[in-house]
């Protein structure tokens, strides 16, 4: 009996040892073989692409480098004509002077006041234009009231009419309602001019969404505002980021509308920068001018760097398609 048990145990364990190579081979066959890495050969095409990118980067970064270097040099070094040389005596005095004591006309308070004026103009103008554009795009995409096509065509005509053509009628209209040369007046102007483009952005974005979502919300009893606030708006983060970047950049960099409609007490930063650079009295301080220019462009640059990923995502998801 002992011999038979030993033979059975040996026979039972033998197939397991024989089957393991088969199982291992089957598992190895199911695992895909790693792909060989492509060698980064420096072909003429690759060298040309990298060369073009380097030249393009230098072309756009060289003015910024000159501005930065000039803004931290004293005027004694700037007069030597060493435009591209690094500063021998590093100083931040031009930055402090540009911010708080540079003359922007009759007053010498720097561009600090213009910065806060620009903030007071940009924030409500951006919020209002995006809110109205989002509602318009939502209504034109899903509800489609009577005359929606005609309304959209009129809005698009307003987007392509030059601003200079409408300045005089707007001046007369704002003066009639006592809003000319006031903060509410310039906010209203930027909201009006931003509404067509914002409507186009949101309409194209919502048109790419499945209609079944809207129909299901309607079946569940959702009305106009409930569907917009609880369904559409939470899905609109990418296009909202795109709209914010476009509006903040456009309104912050605006010069003409701020000069005409803001009034002397609410001049934006760009108008005060022009007053600093184009002054004809006293010594022309190039380091202060460069520092003031960089300070004026700091907000759009920071916005692009912070939200660049969302900007690309909004474009890829249909924000500017159509």
Sum up the overall morphology in one term. Answer: flat
User: In terms of structural class, how would the helical and strand content be classed?
Assistant: mainly alpha
Averaged pLDDT, please?
Answer: 83
Please report the total strand number as a whole number. Answer: 0
Assembly annotation: single chain
Strand content: under 5%
Overall number of structural domains: 2
CATH topology of the largest domain: MetI-like fold
Radius of gyration, whole Å: 32 Å
The CATH architecture name of the largest domain reads: Orthogonal Bundle
Question: Helix segment count?
Answer: 15
Biggest sheet character = none
**Helix fraction bin:** over 70%
CATH H-level homologous superfamily name of the largest domain: MetI-like
Protein architecture, described:
The protein is mainly alpha-helical and 322 residues long. It has two domains: 44-91, no CATH class; 112-316, MetI-like fold (Orthogonal Bundle), CATH 1.10.3720.10. The protein has helices at 2-30, 44-71, 75-78, 93-100, 112-143, 148-160, 163-176, 183-207, 211-219, 224-232, 237-252, 256-261, 269-277, 286-296, 298-316. The longest helix is centred in the middle third of the chain and has 32 residues, at 112-143. It is flat. The chain starts with a helix and ends in a 6-residue tail after the last helix. Mean pLDDT is 83; it is low at 1-26.
């Amino acid at each position: 009996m002992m011999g038979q048990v030993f033979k059975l145990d040996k026979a039972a364990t033998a197939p397991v040892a024989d089957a393991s190579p088969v199982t291992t081979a089957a598992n190895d066959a199911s695992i895909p073989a790693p792909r060989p890495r492509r060698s980064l050969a420096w072909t003429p095409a690759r060298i040309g692409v990298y060369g073009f990118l380097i030249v393009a980067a230098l072309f756009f970064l060289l003015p910024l480098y000159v501005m930065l270097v000039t803004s931290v040099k004293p005027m004694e070094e700037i007069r030597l004509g060493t435009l591209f040389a690094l500063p021998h005596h590093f100083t931040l005095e031009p930055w402090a002077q540009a911010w708080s004591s540079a003359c922007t006309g009759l007053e010498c308070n720097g561009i600090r006041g213009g910065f806060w004026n620009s903030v007071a103009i940009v924030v409500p103008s951006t919020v209002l234009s995006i809110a109205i554009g989002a509602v318009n795009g939502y209504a034109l995409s899903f509800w489609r009231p009577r005359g929606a096509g005609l309304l959209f065509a009129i809005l698009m005509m307003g987007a392509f009419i030059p601003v200079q053509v409408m300045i005089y009628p707007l001046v007369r209209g704002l003066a009639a309602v006592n809003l000319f040369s006031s903060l509410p007046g310039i906010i209203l102007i930027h909201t009006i001019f931003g509404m067509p483009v914002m409507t186009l952005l949101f309409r194209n974005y919502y048109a790419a969404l499945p209609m079944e979502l809207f129909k299901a919300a309607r079946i569940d009893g959702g009305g106009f505002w409930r569907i917009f606030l609880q369904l559409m708006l939470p899905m609109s983060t990418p296009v909202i980021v795109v709209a914010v970047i476009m509006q903040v950049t456009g309104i912050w960099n605006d010069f003409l509308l701020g000069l005409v409609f803001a009034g002397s007490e609410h001049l934006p930063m760009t108008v005060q920068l022009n007053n600093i650079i184009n002054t004809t009295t006293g010594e022309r301080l190039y380091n202060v001018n460069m520092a003031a220019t960089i300070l004026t462009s700091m907000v759009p640059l920071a916005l692009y760097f912070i939200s660049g990923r969302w900007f690309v995502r909004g474009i890829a998801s249909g924000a500017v398609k159509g």
